[in-house]
Write a structure and sequence with these properties.
Catalyzes the rate-limiting step of the non-oxidative phase in the pentose phosphate pathway. Catalyzes the reversible conversion of sedheptulose-7-phosphate and D-glyceraldehyde 3-phosphate into erythrose-4-phosphate and beta-D-fructose 6-phosphate. With 1040 residues, the protein is α+β, with helices and mostly antiparallel strands. The chain folds into four domains: 10-315, TIM Barrel; 356-540 and 552-667, no CATH class; 672-774, Immunoglobulin-like (Sandwich), CATH 2.60.40; 792-815 and 843-940 and 954-969, Immunoglobulin-like, CATH 2.60.40.
């Protein structure tokens, strides 16, 4: 093999890999999964990161253990909280040290920043907790604020106790000089926060990396340290973009957030060392000395440093207070016998009695409305349960998985929303379970043809709010938000146990319901606790008040179940209402339109602890709890959700909840473009040709695009427009894995004009890659697999562990973190839907390695595995999931880390798999290849294993290939190398062993899908199938 040139090798490496050659990379996170993924040398934490991590369900065990420790230590409440905080910080550090080979930084409470002696005492206590856990102090850095007192505390810890210190919140050159003279181990100058200050307080709003004030500050400090031989090392921190990181390549250390680590791992641009000892020696800096007076004066002269240091201390202190408050509440329940008993009762009630749910019901016209599509939204206690009880394999059921589920911590013990849809009878009654919770569902939506329209009646919609909160002795109202597509009158009533609509559902005297308004009133006359109520929402034919009908029966009814947590009274006050923009409670949404809701609450209420939000899948929430603001955003991509979609939200503080507010999104119906319409998309513009005969009674001179300056021309037969993708008001949105350019041709009239003529609303959309569509039929033009990925093969292999072409990875495997997994589903072995199999097994293999292979040699190409199933029979009539929608079956499957993006290897635990009665198995997987279209892009794995939720905004995918193994024996015997048979979409061919003779094809429709089985087998005849899926990249729609 010819050697690879250094330039080419550098181009193949990621920016992160190159950076690690010049600089020690440190992960700035408390999330263990992020540390696993990017494999930094060290890791840092702070109160803000610990607070965020402590709210995550997966880390609740660490919080619970710390609380038990704090209570066991005894003392006053403050002492118990302090001991719990110390234990929690150290517990996170201990877990991080299992992931990194170097050191972890643990921070001393920022509220001690001006008390040297107390900082020293706290630091030594943290070190003692690490040493009790068997961790040497050499693997721990104590983080201290870079005040004069903090620097002197660091000096004492280093000189007298041998404790290494990391001086944080460093913004001025004076702080850096004082730290060097104190001979502390490490400093963390904050690059991004310096940049933030200059953007806010100067006329400059953007800076190139080489002129970034934060970069210049760290460069000066680094040069000063190296020129004069100080032993203190520099670790740049608080980065805002990868440009800042690259500009400091060569710095001793850089602590980087997971988001920027992800960008650097996908960036393949060249990086060189910008900082070096040689450059530092040549700089013109002069050595200075600072005593306390000189330090305070020079630091005081730097306005930016003074403001950012005090601001940083306040923010870290605020998060420490929030964490303490969370701990106090949990200690109160766990420590006091009476409160513990009450808390246990409430928790048991929450776990066993109820989840909080609503169901949106859509009658299916295909069978006259005898069945309906039920869209469930259910709130359960944290952590989020799986869907196994409500969406078993093989059911007509779709789950809505998202990387950012709707969750909250208030009220305790926290909550999570699960959403799915399934087909059920129109008259349906059942008691369902989700995780450890149970909920009752009673639906009456039997077919009713409306005489006014001749169409099926649509049941009412009711929005699911987040868990409701109130204070004892403080009356409060809760307005339930309901809608009806038919315009019917909607009423709410309490569910009746005698009708089987609920179980164990007493009507509480302190809860009153205005049935006509669907308004719930809490009188305040209830002791603290958690209460549940079951309601039925019904629609009635609207009747004028002047007409009396003896019996106006409900057309349909759907359930909604709510929870109300009554808390001890602190201060009733007035009901707080957030300001929402736009102010409408019903927003009409066009295809590919992005809807944004800006919500804010007054600052005089104090800082919001969390925003409780429940909405449609893929609703994104960006919030700032310090400013009491949040922005909710949703993009209407292709979906099978209901026409009406509610978004409900409230602001939670520790003592109260704001007034519940809901906004509805209405997805307008889509129709195909009229016959003869032509819409062409290229790289810079879309061109529309619209026959005027297809839009009768529409005045052309009233039509305009998003921007009225974009010209529209017409003659006697056609209307034409050339619409720039970068102008004409064209908007760009990200829809799933596609970049979509949208514009709208619509009728625009002066407000003073009243007319009965129809109006036109014609959304236009172009997606990447370039396509062309004509009339009501689609003509798809897209690159072939061969044009994008070159000539390649895909195949499947099955090996015993430690064998096969990738045995160097499987002999001593490193397993990838499984961030999200499928529920474990067992097959009914008594099923008669497939032939009987041999049920006598004496000895069988315990594990097998599944290889999903590709020989595509393009650097950035990744293999995406969307589904794998196993079966005892070759026809797969009965199968069990190994993976679905990118989610591994955690009970039986683990992914092995390999140094190949274009292939995947999984370790199958046969004892945990559903195959129990046979000595053979078959495997079938769906795979595709993916290549990001941007230099920093990243392919998105559906279950969130490979990056953030915004990792891929534009990627090219190959067709989906279905790979089938041959018969795989589960009985150990002599290894036999099987023969290989493959088939293609064009014709079947016999392929040699791909390990010996790689086979390629120039015809993209005839790419060979090779299937190999290397597990011990008795018969090795295998088959392969290539299933082609084509995505249509242009949606043509018209609305009237």
């Amino acid at each position: 093999m010819s050697s690879v040139s250094p330039d080419k090798r550098r181009k193949m490496e990621s920016a992160l890999s190159q950076l690690k050659k010049f600089t020690v990379v440190v992960a700035d996170t408390g999330d263990f999964n992020a540390i696993d993924e990017y494999k930094p040398q060290d890791a840092t934490t702070n109160p803000s990161l610990i607070l965020a991590a402590a709210k995550m369900p997966e880390y609740q065990n660490l919080l619970d253990q710390a609380i038990k420790y704090g209570i066991a230590k005894g003392g006053t409440e403050e002492e118990q909280v302090a001991n719990t905080m110390d234990k929690l910080f150290v517990s996170f550090g201990l877990e991080i040290l299992k992931k990194v080979p170097g050191r972890v930084s643990t921070e001393v409470d920022a509220r001690l920043s001006f008390d040297k002696d107390t900082m020293v005492t706290k630091a030594l206590k943290l070190i003692s907790l690490y040493e009790e856990a068997g961790i040497s102090k050499d693997r721990v850095l104590i983080k201290l604020s870079s005040t004069w007192e903090g620097i002197q505390a660091g000096k004492e810890l280093e000189e007298k106790h041998g404790v290494h210190c990391n001086m944080t919140l460093l913004f001025s050159f004076a702080q850096a000089v004082a730290c060097a003279e104190a001979k502390v181990t490490l400093i963390s100058p904050f690059v991004g926060r310096i940049l933030d200050w200059h953007k806010e307080n100067t006329d400059r709003k953007s800076f190139e990396p080489h002129e970034d004030p934060g970069v210049l500050s760290v460069t000066k400090i680094f040069n000063y340290y190296k020129k004069f031989g100080y032993g203190t090392v520099v670790m740049g921190a608080s980065f805002r973009n990868t440009g800042e990181v690259k500009a400091l390549a060569g710095c001793d250390l850089l602590t980087i957030s997971p988001g920027l680590l992800a960008e650097l791992s996908q960036d393949h641009s060249a990086i060189s060392a910008m900082l070096s000892v040689d450059k530092a020696k040549a700089c013109d800096l002069e050595k200075i000395h600072l005593d306390e007076k000189a330090f305070r004066w020079q630091h005081n002269e730097d306005r930016m440093a003074v403001e950012k240091l005090s601001d940083g201390i306040r923010k870290f202190a605020a998060d420490a207070v929030k964490l303490e408050t969370m701990i106090k509440e949990k200690i109160a329940v766990a420590g006091d016998p009476l409160e513990k008993s009450a808390g246990a009762r409430f928790k048991a009630s929450f776990l066993l009695r109820c989840s909080i749910d609503s169901v949106h019901v859509v009658p299916l016209e295909s069978n006259g409305g005898n069945t309906v599509r039920a869209h469930f939204s259910v709130t359960t206690p944290s952590p989020c349960p799986d869907f196994s009880a409500v969406c078993a394999a093989g059911q007509d059921c779709q789950t809505h998985l998202t990387s950012t589920p709707f969750t909250g911590n208030l009220p305790a013990p926290g909550w999570c929303v699960r959403q799915w849809q399934t087909t059920i009878p129109s008259a349906y009654k059942a008691q369902l379970s989700l995780g450890s919770t149970q909920f009752n569902v009673t639906i009456n939506a039997e077919p009713y043809i409306r005489s006014s329209t001749g169409r099926l009646n649509q049941p009412p919609y009711v929005a699911l709010p987040p868990p409701l909160r109130a204070q004892a002795d403080c009356p409060q109202t809760f307005q339930l938000s309901v809608k009806d597509l038919d315009g019917d009158r909607v009423q709410c009533r309490f569910a009746r146990e005698d009708k089987g609509e609920c179980y164990n559902c007493p009507q509480h005297s302190f809860l009153q319901l205005d049935e006509a308004k669907c308004m719930l009133t809490f009188t305040g006359k209830a002791p603290p606790g958690q209460y549940f109520l079951d309601l039925m929402v019904e629609d009635y034919i609207p009747v004028p008040k002047s007409i009396q009908i003896l019996e106006n029966k409900a057309l349909s009814s759907v359930p909604v179940q709510l929870s109300l947590t009554v808390e001890s009274n602190t201060n009733c006050g007035s009901e707080l209402l957030g300001t929402v923009a736009p102010q409408e409670d019903l927003l009409f949404v066009l295809p590919y339109q992005e809807v944004k809701l800006d919500v804010s609450y007054p600052l005089d209420i104090g800082s919001v602890d969390e925003f409780a939000v429940v909405g449609p899948p893929q609703l994104h929430n960006k919030n700032d709890v310090v400013k009491n603001q949040m922005t909710l955003a949703w993009i209407r991509s292709e979906n099978n959700l209901t026409r009406l979609l509610p978004i409900c939200f409230a602001a939670n503080t520790k003592s109260f909840q704001s007034k519940l507010q809901c906004v509805w999104l209405y997805q307008r119906e889509m129709r195909t473009l009229p016959t003869g319409t032509e819409l062409k998309c290229n790289q810079t513009a879309m061109t529309l040709v619209l026959p005027l005969a297809s839009i009768p009674n529409i005045l052309v001179n009233e039509l305009q695009l998003n921007s009225p300056t974009c010209p529209i021309t017409s003659n006697s037969t056609h209307l034409t427009a050339t619409i720039s993708l970068n102008g004409c008001g064209t908007k760009t949105v990200h829809s799933g894995l596609e970049l979509v350019y949208t514009n709208t041709l619509r009728t625009v009239r002066p407000y003073t004009m009243v007319s009965r003529r129809p109006t036109l609303v014609l959304p236009l959309a172009c997606r990447i890659p370039e396509v062309q569509a004509r009339g009501p039929y689609y003509t798809v033009e897209m690159p072939s697999d061969a044009e994008v990925f070159g000539d390649f093969r895909v195949w499947i292999e099955v090996h015993q562990p430690g064998e096969g072409s990738l045995s160097k990875y499987t002999k001593n495997p490193r397993f990838m973190p499984n961030l999200r997994s499928l529920p474990r589903v067992r097959r009914d072995t008594g099923s008669n839907s497939s032939p009987a199999v041999n049920t006598k097994i004496t000895t069988r293999l315990k594990e097998l390695d599944l290889y999903l292979m590709s020989d595509c040699n393009i650097l950035k190409v990744e293999m995406v595995v969307t589904k794998c199933v196993e079966s005892e029979t070759e026809d797969f009539k009965v199968s069990n999931p190994i993976m679905d929608q990118g989610c591994l079956n955690s009970s039986s499957t683990s992914e092995i880390e390999i140094n190949k993006n274009n292939s995947r290897v999984y370790r199958l635990n046969l004892d945990s798999m559903a195959v129990k009665t046979s000595d053979v198995m078959y495997i079938m997987c769906n795979i595709s290849l993916c290549m990001p279209t941007s230099p920093t892009g990243q392919c998105l794995f559906e279950c969130g294993r490979a990056g953030s939720q915004n990792a891929v905004l534009g990627s090219v995918f190959s067709r989906t290939y279905t790979l089938r193994s041959g018969q795989v024996s589960l009985i150990p015997n002599t290894f036999v190398s099987p023969s290989v048979t493959s088939s293609t979409t064009a014709a079947s061919t016999v392929a040699p062993n791909p390990a010996e003779t790689p086979q390629t094809t120039k015809n993209p429709s005839s790419i060979t899908a090779v299937v190999i089985s290397h597990a011990p087998t008795t018969t090795s005849v295998t088959t392969a199938a290539v299933l082609i899926t084509i995505s249509v990249f242009l949606q043509k729609i018209i609305l009237y």
